[in-house]
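[Discussion] Sanity-checking designs against the backbone

I'm trying to build intuition for which residues belong where. Below is a structure token string of 358 positions. I'd appreciate it if someone posts a full sequence so I can compare it with mine line by line.
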């Protein structure tokens, strides 16, 4: 029995060491992974409406009382569970994966894939702001550690060897997660702190339009993409040639208690020229058209009334508004990562002067 126990012990150690090597993965520190500060910003809300203000040490200690010793080792002390041993590795159910410590929604089952590494793997988080990324130099390697943005609990690591559309592999410890099926009653911590709505606007090059909307108070998130075309999963190379029918579009997630849809429409008419047909400044083609993509009939009616009222203004007497209101509920295709936050990354590019009035 003593010999058998020693053999089992050695096997466990070897599995753990293999897990460390696999966790390192190829290309762990390539430029495509966005590093974030190791301190979350106070008062930041995610696009999902969650307050990401860091929890106090007292609150974290209270939440930690529910953890078993293995969960505490992984979450609080940056541990790694042995490969192929996690309870959620082979979970195929439809639902959400929450932070085991604070219940913040982290990943969705539709982004889970089989990586063969021995740990639950996802190609994207449920909300990018719910994950913090910091450099990890333990074990003599350079890796990117991922943490819960709200409580700072250790989740795992992220690597650049995942599938499309992101090319990333978020490698998680099962001990860091708690799974809830889609229709199950989730805990209070998984409920958004703010009610949010979405709006979609096309007004020329999406780099500049996204940047302007991101600065509007009440806008929680702005991202670039494509709408209004016929091609599934369009790529920028095809959209910019005008062959897919899509328009470069910006998705806005906003808090309606702070900024209304009508106010966003007003800003939209300030951020671009609604009198230019199939162009915006130096950019020509239907992919740069001025268009509003309502999410429902209520937004459609508001947008149509807004355009009608604007068309009667002196400002547009000699230059009629050409902005179209497209059919509600069309699919938004998120643009490639290199197009997101383009102005913030490159210091501005699109020269779109803010027009007076609106």
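Best answer:
Here's mine. Compare freely.
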């Amino acid at each position: 029995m003593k010999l058998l126990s020693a053999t089992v012990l050695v096997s466990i150690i070897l599995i753990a060491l293999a897990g460390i090597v696999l966790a390192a993965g190829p290309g762990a520190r390539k430029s495509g992974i966005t590093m974030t500060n190791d301190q979350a910003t106070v008062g930041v809300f995610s696009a999902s409406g969650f307050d990401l203000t860091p929890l106090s040490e007292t609150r974290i200690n209270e939440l930690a009382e529910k953890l078993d010793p293995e969960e505490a080792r992984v979450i609080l002390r940056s541990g790694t569970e042995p490969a192929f041993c996690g309870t959620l590795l082979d979970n195929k159910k439809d639902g959400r994966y929450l932070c085991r410590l604070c219940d913040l929604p982290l990943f969705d089952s539709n982004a889970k894939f089989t990586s063969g590494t021995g740990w639950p793997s996802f190609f994207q988080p449920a909300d990018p702001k719910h994950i913090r990324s910091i450099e990890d130099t333990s074990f003599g390697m350079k890796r990117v550690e991922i943490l819960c943005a709200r409580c700072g609990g250790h989740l795992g690591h992220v690597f650049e060897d995942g599938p499309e559309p992101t090319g990333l592999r978020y490698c998680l410890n099962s001990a860091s997660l708690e799974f809830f099926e889609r229709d199950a009653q989730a805990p209070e911590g998984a409920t958004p702190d703010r009610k949010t709505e979405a709006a979609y606007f096309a007004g020329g090059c999406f780099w500049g339009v996204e940047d302007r909307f991101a600065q509007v108070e009440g806008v929680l998130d702005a991202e670039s993409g494509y709408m209004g075309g016929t091609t599934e999963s369009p790529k920028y190379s095809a959209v910019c040639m005008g062959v897919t029918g899509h328009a470069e579009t910006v998705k806005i997630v906003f808090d309606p208690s702070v900024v209304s849809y009508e106010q966003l429409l007003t800003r939209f008419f300030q951020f671009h020229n609604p009198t230019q047909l199939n162009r915006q400044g130096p950019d020509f083609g239907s992919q740069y058209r001025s268009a509003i993509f309502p999410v429902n009939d209520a937004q459609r009616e508001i947008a149509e009334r807004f355009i009608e009222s604007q068309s009667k203004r002196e400002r547009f007497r000699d230059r009629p508004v050409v902005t179209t209101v497209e059919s509600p509920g069309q699919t938004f295709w998120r643009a490639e990562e290199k197009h997101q936050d383009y102005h913030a990354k490159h210091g501005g590019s699109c020269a779109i002067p803010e027009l007076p009035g609106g």
